Amino acid sequence: MKQFILPFVFLFSVLATAQNAVNDTILLSRKNAETLFLQNNLSLIAERLNIDIAQAQIIQAKLWPNPTFSINEFNLWRNTGSEELPAIWGNYGRFQEFGASLEQLVYTAGKRKKMIAIEKVGADMALEYYKNFLRNLKMEFRNNLTAMQYNQAKKTVYQKQLQSVQNLTKAYAIQVKEGNISQGDYIRLKASELEFLNEINAITIENNSLQSEMKKLLHLSPLSYIKLSQDDAIPDMNAVNDLNILNSLADDANYRPDVKLAKLNEKYNQNQYVYQKALKTPDITLEASYDRGGNIMQNFFGLGFSIDLPFFDRNQGNIKAAQFSVEQSKLNKQEVLNNAQAEILETYNNFKAVQKLYENIGTDYQIKLDKMLDSYLTSFKNRNISLLVYLDYVEAYLNNKMILLDTQKELNNRLEEFKNASGQELN
C-alpha cells in the first residue's frame, strides 16, 4: 500500500512546488527595482569590466621592453686547424667558440610617457562609455517600469469595472428568468462584460511581454511575477521646476557622457599626434657582448648600440593623419555639444507641456471621478437612472481614467527623456 501511495505523494509535492514557484510574486517600488537592476543586470556588469581593461592597459604602457639575451657562433665539433683554447670545465671547451650578447631597447623623445598619457585618456573614455551605456540603459529600464506600472493600473481599473458588471449581469439573469427585465438589457450588460474581458485579455498579453523583458533586465527567475507599487507612479518634479534651463543650457550639456566622450576623444587624438611626432625620433638599442675565441682576443667583451637612420621614413604620413584626426575630433565635439543643447531644450519643453496638462487635470479629479462612478452605480441599482445612462457614464469614466493614466505615463517618460538629455538625475 505504501509503495502505491508514495509516487502520488511525490507527484503532489512536485506540483505544489511548481505552483508556488509560478506564484512567486515580487512586490517592488521603482527605487527597489532600480537597485536590483544596477546590481544584477549582466550587460551592465560586462560593460563595467571595460574600465578594468583600460586600467590594465595603463599598467602595460608603464612597462619597459624586455632585454634580449642571445648566444651564437657555438660550434658543436672541432674544425681542422682549430686553435686550442683554455678548457672551460675539466677537459671540455678547448676547441669551443661562442658569443653572447645582451640588448636593451631604450625609447627616446619621451615615447613611454606619451603612451601612458594616451592610455590614461583611454581609461577616462572607458569610464564615460560606461556612464553613457548606463544612462541609456537606465532610460530604457525606467520606461519599462512606467509601462508596467501603467499596464497594471489599467488592468486594475478594468477588473474593478468587470466585477461590477458581472455582479449586475448575474442579477439581471435572474430577473430575466422571472420576467421582470427585458432580454435586451441583459444582452447589453453581457456585451459590456465581454468587452471588459477582451480588454483585460489584451492587457494581460501586453503585461506578459513586459514581465519577460523586466525579468531579463533584473536577472530574475522566469517563474517569478513582478508587481509594481503604484505609490510612486507620479514622479517628483520639484527639481525640474527649480531648474533655470535656459541660463544653464551649456553647463547642463557638459554633464552628458557623450559630450565628455567627444572632449576626451579630442584629447586622445591630440596625445596621439604628440606621440606620432615623437616616433620620428629613432629609438636606441644598447648592446653588451662577449665573444670567446672569435678574434684576436680569446675573451672579448664589447659594448655597442644601434639606431635607425631616418633618411626616408620619418613617420610623415602618420603624423599628418594624426593632425587631421585632431581637427576632425574638434568638429565632432562641437556637433555633439550643439545636438546635446538642442535635445535638452526640446525635452525640457516637452516635459513642461505634459506637466501643464497634468496640473490642469488636478490631483483631486481622480477622487471625484471614482466617487461619481459609485454614485451612478448606486442610482442605477435604485432604479433612479436607466441602464443606458449608467453604461454611458461607465464609458466616459473609463475614457477619463485612461486619460489620467496616459498623462501619468507620459509625464514619467518625458521626465526620463529630459534626464537622459541633460545627463543628470535631478533628484
TrEMBL record:
<comment type="similarity">
    <text>Belongs to the outer membrane factor (OMF) (TC 1.B.17) family.</text>
</comment>
<dbReference type="InterPro" id="IPR010131">
    <property type="entry name" value="MdtP/NodT-like"/>
</dbReference>
<feature type="signal peptide">
    <location>
        <begin position="1"/>
        <end position="18"/>
    </location>
</feature>
<protein>
    <submittedName>
        <fullName>TolC family protein</fullName>
    </submittedName>
</protein>
<dbReference type="InterPro" id="IPR003423">
    <property type="entry name" value="OMP_efflux"/>
</dbReference>
<keyword id="KW-0732">Signal</keyword>
<dbReference type="Pfam" id="PF02321">
    <property type="entry name" value="OEP"/>
</dbReference>
